[in-house]
Write a structure and sequence with these properties.
The complex is a heterodimer of chains A (299) and B (305). Chain A is an all-alpha fold and 299 residues long. Helices cover 72% and strands 0% of the residues of chain A. Chain B is 76% helix and 0% strand. The chains are: A mainly alpha (299), B mainly alpha (305).
C-alpha cells in the first residue's frame, strides 16, 4: 500500500505553491531581473533599518573621517562621492525617488487614465471626442514646462510635487491605451448580451468593460514604469527633480560629471543602478505580456 | 490647429502664473525706485493689460511669425529660434539617419534568422539598449572617446559654415548618445514586422520561383515592412526632441533645448512661450506629415477610404 501512495509523485508539481510554479516558468534572465527588483524595492522601503548602511548625507571629510572621491573599499563598499558621502547609501535612498515617482505615475495612470479611457471607449460619441481632444493637447504639451511651472509656483521641489506632476502627465497615455481596448471590448458578444438583457450602462462599464481592460493596462504599466524612471533620471540629471541634498540617481550622475577625470565610480554606480532597474522592469514586463498573450491565445 | 491654439494658450497661462514680476528682468532693482519710469516700462511692455488681451496681442503677432522679444536679451524670439534650429535640426537628422542605417540590417538579419543565436543576441542587446538613457550613454562616450582616447571633443559645437570636419567631430558623440535607444526601437520594429511579412503567401511564391533570399528580403519583404518604420520614426520625433534637451545640456551644444532650459532658469517667459509653441508646432506638423506619407506609400489605405 505504501508503495502505491508514493507513485502519486507526478502531481506534486501541481501541489507546489503557485509562486514557485510561476517562477519555474521564468527564463533565468527574468528570474535575475525579478530578484533585482525585489532587492531594490526591499532595500528602499527598509533603508532606515538596514544595519551598517551609512547616512546618505553624512560628509565624513568634514569631521576628519574618510576622504572625498574614495574608490570602492571595505569602509564604503562603492566608495564615496566628491562630498565624501557614502555612494551605496545614496543609491539606496535615491531609489526611493525613482520608485515613488514610478508608483505615482502608474497609480494615477491606471486609476484615472483607465477609468476615463474605458468610459469614453464604451459610451463613445461627444464625450469621447471631447476627452480625446484634451488628451491630445496634453500629449502635445511639453511636460517640462508644466513641471517647472508647478514647481516654481509652489516654491519647492520635493518628492510629493514631482510625483504628482509626473503622475498627472501620465494620465493621457493610459487613457489612450484604455480607450483603444475598451473600444474593441465594447463590440464583443458578452457586452452585447449584457445590453440585450437590459443591464444598466454603469454596471456594464464596471462589471464587463473595466475588468477586461485592466490586465492590458497593467502589462502596459510595467513598461511605463521603466519609461517614467528614465524620465525622472533625465530630469534629475538636468537638475530639475528633487532638490539636493536628497539623492536621486540622475542627480548623482550629474554631480559626478564634474570629477569624471579624477574618479569615475560616483558616475558608474548610479548609472548601473538606473540601467539595471529599467532593464529589469522591461524584461519582467515583456515576460508577463508574453505569458498573457499565450494564455489568451489558448482560450 | 485647435491643438496648437490650446497648447499656446496653456503655455501662456502657465508661464504667466510663474511668480516673479517680469519687471524685475526688465529694470534693475535700484532703478525701480523711480515709480514713473516703472509705470512707463510696464505700459510699454503691456504688463498691466489683462491676460486675455496680452494673449490676443501675442497670438496676432505669432501668426505673422513674430513671437515677441526675449525679456532678458531683448532679441527677437523667432530670430533666436532660427539661430538655434540648425544645431538641433542637424543633431536630429544625423541621429535618425544613423539609427535607421544601423537598425534596418540588424532587424533584417534578426528576422531572417528568427530564433537563432544571432537573433537572440540582437534582440537581447536591443532590450538592453532600450534601458540606457541618453545621458548615461553620453557620459560613457565622453569618458571613452573624448577623455581616454581623445578622438572627439567632449563638449562644444562647430558650425557647419565654419568647418565641415569640425562640425562632424562635434555632432558625432551627441548623435551617437541619442542613437542608442533609437537603434533599439527601430531594430525591434523592423524585426517584428518582417517576421510577420516573411510568413505571407507571396513570399512563399517568390521562394518557389527560385528567387534568391537576399532579393526576397530587400525587394519583397522590406518594402511593406518599412511603412511601420516610417510611422515609428515620425512618432519618435517628439521623444527625440525631449532627448536633445538632455544631450545638448550634457555636451553644451547651443541648440533649441539648451536655450529652452536657459530661458526657464532665467524666467524669460517670452522665450519659453515661443520655443514651446514652436516645438508643439513641429510635433503636430510631423505627425500630419507621417499620415500623408503613409497615404502616399501604401495604396491599400487610399482604397480603404
Amino acid at each position: 500500500m505504501g508503495a502505491a501512495v508514493d507513485t502519486v509523485e507526478p502531481t506534486a508539481a501541481v501541489r507546489r505553491p503557485w509562486i514557485r510554479r510561476f517562477v519555474a516558468k521564468m527564463p533565468w534572465t527574468t528570474r535575475f531581473c525579478a530578484s533585482w527588483l525585489i532587492v531594490i524595492v526591499t532595500a528602499t522601503v527598509f533603508a532606515d533599518l538596514i544595519p551598517g548602511l551609512a547616512d546618505p548625507n553624512y560628509q565624513g571629510f568634514l569631521f576628519g573621517d574618510g576622504a572625498t572621491n574614495e574608490g570602492p573599499g571595505l569602509s564604503h563598499f562603492l566608495g564615496t562621492d566628491n562630498n565624501s558621502r557614502d555612494i551605496l547609501a545614496r543609491i539606496v535612498y535615491g531609489a526611493r525617488v525613482s520608485l515613488t515617482v514610478a508608483l505615482a505615475a502608474v497609480f494615477m495612470g491606471v486609476v484615472f487614465g483607465g477609468f476615463f479611457g474605458s468610459l469614453v471607449g464604451f459610451v463613445r460619441g461627444k464625450t469621447d471626442s471631447t476627452v480625446m481632444a484634451v488628451v491630445d493637447v496634453i500629449l502635445a504639451f511639453p511636460g517640462l514646462v508644466l513641471l517647472l511651472t508647478v514647481v516654481t509656483l509652489l516654491g519647492r521641489r520635493d518628492l510629493v510635487v514631482i510625483a504628482a506632476v509626473i503622475g498627472f502627465l501620465s494620465i493621457p497615455p493610459y487613457t489612450r491605451v484604455a480607450r483603444a481596448n475598451a473600444l474593441s471590448i465594447s463590440r464583443r458578444e458578452f457586452v452585447t448580451a449584457a445590453r440585450a438583457i437590459g443591464t444598466k450602462k454603469r454596471t456594464i462599464l464596471f462589471r464587463e468593460v473595466i475588468p477586461n481592460v485592466l490586465p492590458t493596462l497593467l502589462a502596459y504599466a510595467m513598461v511605463n514604469a521603466a519609461v517614467i524612471i528614465l524620465l525622472e533620471g533625465a530630469l534629475a540629471f538636468l537638475g530639475l527633480s528633487v532638490e539636493p541634498p536628497t539623492s536621486s540617481w540622475g542627480t548623482m550622475v550629474n554631480a559626478a560629471r564634474v570629477d569624471l577625470q579624477i574618479n569615475v565610480w560616483p558616475a558608474v554606480w548610479p548609472s548601473l543602478a538606473l540601467v539595471f532597474t529599467v532593464y529589469s522592469l522591461n524584461n519582467v514586463g515583456d515576460w508577463l505580456r508574453r505569458l498573457r498573450s499565450v494564455r489568451s491565445a489558448a482560450l | 490647429m485647435a491643438t496648437l491654439l490650446a497648447v499656446s494658450f496653456l503655455t501662456f497661462l502657465l508661464v504667466n502664473l510663474l511668480p516673479g514680476d517680469a519687471i524685475n528682468a526688465l529694470i534693475p532693482i535700484e532703478a525701480q525706485q523711480d515709480q514713473e519710469y516703472v509705470a512707463q516700462v510696464r505700459a510699454e511692455w503691456g504688463l498691466d493689460d489683462p491676460m486675455l488681451v496680452r494673449y490676443g496681442k501675442w497670438l496676432g503677432d505669432a501668426v505673422r511669425g513674430d513671437l515677441g522679444d526675449s525679456i532678458v536679451t531683448s532679441r527677437a524670439v523667432s530670430g533666436e529660434i532660427a539661430h538655434r534650429i540648425p544645431v538641433t535640426g542637424e543633431l536630429m537628422i544625423v541621429t535618425v539617419v544613423f539609427s535607421v542605417l544601423m537598425a534596418v540590417p540588424l532587424g533584417v538579419v534578426s528576422a531572417y534568422r528568427e530564433g537563432s543565436r544571432i537573433d537572440q543576441f540582437i534582440s537581447g542587446s536591443a532590450q538592453f539598449a532600450l534601458s540606457v538613457p541618453g545621458f548615461v550613454a553620453g557620459l560613457l562616450f565622453i569618458y571613452v572617446f573624448a577623455m581616454k582616447l581623445g578622438w572627439f571633443p567632449a563638449t562644444g559645437w562647430t558650425r557647419i559654415s565654419n568647418s565641415i570636419s569640425g562640425n562632424l567631430m562635434t555632432v558625432t558623440l551627441p548623435a551617437l548618445s541619442l542613437s542608442v535607444i533609437e537603434v533599439a526601437v527601430y531594430a525591434r520594429v523592423v524585426r517584428s514586422d518582417l517576421v510577420a511579412t516573411l510568413k505571407e503567401d507571396y513570399i512563399l511564391s517568390a521562394k518557389s520561383k527560385g528567387l534568391k533570399d537576399g532579393f526576397i528580403l530587400f525587394r519583397h519583404a522590406l518594402r511593406p515592412s518599412s511603412l511601420t518604420l516610417i510611422t515609428v520614426v515620425g512618432l519618435n520625433i517628439g521623444l527625440l526632441l525631449g532627448g536633445t534637451v538632455v544631450v545638448e545640456f550634457l555636451f553644451a551644444l547651443p541648440g533649441l533645448g539648451k536655450r529652452l532650459l536657459d530661458a526657464i532658469f532665467q524666467r524669460d517667459f517670452m522665450m519659453v512661450q515661443g520655443i514651446t509653441v514652436f516645438v508643439a508646432m513641429v510635433y503636430v506638423v510631423v505627425n500630419t506629415l507621417v499620415d500623408v506619407v503613409y497615404l502616399v506609400v501604401d495604396p491599400r489605405i487610399r482604397k480603404a477610404d
